């Protein structure tokens, strides 16, 4: 009899397994249907010995000291400031849109924030209530830049027009009037020094944690006795899709190795215009690895395949709310993570959510009982 079964060995599942085993001495069976730990943050060395991210580029960034302190128990870090270029009208320009982007694209020489702000303000469209992913962008940069940088990319990535997606999606990408070309503005921008999988291995290296891979919850839920459950898979699947399926967007990853030391100037190049792929990642920028060859990943969005992204739009939120109510009424089961809480969360947010869940478990069960 295990104290806990935890379904999913990604960030959510590994953090909770580690906390319950280390702090409460609980016995944990941690399962995943995939043949590895790490969930979507899993990385591995390819045939050429280059470290790649199996499920696309994972760049760690957070404003939370607490989350960095916690993860630092399991990994050292390398500083990495993420920069992204967008291939637009035959040029490579910084995204998020900044003053350099405008100057390069339009052959201008705006030199101050105020000049760039005035240039954008002259093009921005007034939007009374910002609700959609189109509203967010056109209200800041106008329709032309919206079409060049956001409309095509978003239609590819989501299979939906930005006008059909919640504002939170494109609001992830800011607009700048200075020349800051960092993709993220967070206080901490760091990568696990030896990779994510090495970090996860240390998290679950506790004799109280039993790891079972290539094991689907459906197949083993009745076979292995457990007192309580933490579920980090799709919430609609857990409840047999009784309110209908929740849409999740997928991707197909094409991993290639080139016989050259460097392919592109930055870690990621976005393709918001004609190409079928959305972005190309070159891992050596992220990992700092020295190697004669270089590994890239092309991302092709897809309606079918593994569930990678919840799709933020009102009707999906309404359907999720019905599942969430059901989850709240299900005793001894905790739902955590990007798939189980249907939230477009970054890694640090999932760690924060998992640590908060650990505290909630303590509160609701009492310290002694959590084990
Ligand atoms: P997951 O990592 O999805 O783990 C859930 C696990 O549960 C999976 O391994 C799955 O196999 C398993 N599972 C599901 N159902 C079952 C079942 N029935 N039985 C057994 N196992 C099951 N975040 C960032 O902070 N920075 C980034 O740069 C970044 N880039 C990203 C790029 C891409 C392409 C994607 C898709 C995501 C990116 N993210 C990024 C988000 C990040 O991947 C997530 O926040 C994080 O991995 C979520 O962790 P999780 O544990 O909630 O879910
Ligand atoms: N986006 C875009 N063009 C870009 C970058 C982003 O249209 O060059 C939009 C797109 O809808 C994307 C969203 O902004 O899905 C969020 O971008 P982010 O880079 O955060 O996506 P993620 O890394 O989560 O896939």
TrEMBL record:
- Give start and end of each UDP-galactopyranose mutase C-terminal domain: 148-344
Instruction: Choose one Gene Ontology CC annotation of this protein and give it.
Output: cytosol
A molecular function (GO) term: flavin adenine dinucleotide binding
Give the UniProt keywords, A-Z: FAD, Flavoprotein, Isomerase
Q: Which family does it belong to?
A: Belongs to the UDP-galactopyranose/dTDP-fucopyranose mutase family.
What stretch or stretches form a coiled coil here? none
| Name of the protein this chain belongs to | UDP-galactopyranose mutase
**By its UniProt entry, which InterPro entries does this protein fall under?**
UDP-GALP_mutase (IPR004379), UDP-GalPyranose_mutase_C (IPR015899)
What cofactor does this chain's UniProt record say it requires? Answer: FAD
């Amino acid at each position: 009899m295990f104290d806990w079964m935890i379904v999913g060995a990604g960030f959510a599942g590994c953090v909770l397994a580690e906390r319950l085993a280390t702090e409460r001495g609980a016995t944990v069976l941690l399962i995943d249907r995939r043949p590895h730990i790490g969930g979507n943050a899993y990385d591995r060395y390819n045939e050429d010995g280059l470290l790649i991210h199996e499920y696309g580029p994972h760049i760690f960034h957070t404003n939370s000291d607490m989350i960095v302190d916690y993860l630092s128990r399991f990994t050292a870090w390398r500083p990495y400031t993420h920069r992204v270029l967008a291939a637009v009208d035959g040029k490579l320009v910084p995204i998020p849109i900044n003053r350099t982007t405008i100057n390069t694209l339009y052959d201008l020489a705006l030199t101050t924030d105020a000049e760039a702000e005035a240039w954008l303000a002259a093009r921005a469209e007034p939007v009374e209530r910002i609700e959609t992913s189109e509203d967010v962008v056109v209200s800041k940069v106008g329709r032309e830049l919206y079409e060049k940088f956001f409309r095509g990319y978003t239609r590819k990535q989501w299979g939906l027009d930005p006008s059909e997606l919640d504002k939170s999606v494109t609001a992830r990408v800011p607009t700048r009037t200075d020349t800051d070309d960092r993709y993220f503005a967070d206080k901490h921008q760091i990568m696990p020094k030896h990779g994510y999988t090495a970090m996860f291995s240390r998290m679950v290296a506790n004799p109280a944690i039993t790891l079972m891979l290539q094991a689907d919850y459906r197949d083993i839920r009745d076979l292995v006795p457990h007192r309580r459950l933490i579920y980090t898979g799709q919430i609609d699947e857990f409840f047999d899709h009784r309110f209908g399926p929740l849409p999740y967007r997928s991707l197909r990853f094409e991993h290639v190795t080139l016989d050259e030391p460097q392919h592109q100037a930055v870690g990621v190049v976005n393709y918001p215009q004609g190409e079928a792929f959305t972005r190309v990642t070159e891992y050596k920028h992220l990992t700092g690895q020295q190697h004669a060859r270089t590994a890239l990943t092309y991302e092709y969005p897809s309606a079918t395949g593994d569930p990678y992204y919840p799709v933020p739009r009102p009707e999906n939120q309404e359907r999720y709310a019905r599942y969430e109510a059901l989850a709240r009424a299900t005793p001894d089961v905790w739902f955590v993570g990007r798939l189980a809480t249907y939230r477009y969360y970054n890694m640090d947010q999932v760690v924060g959510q998992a640590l908060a869940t650990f505290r909630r478990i303590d509160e609701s069960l009492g310290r002694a009982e959590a084990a």
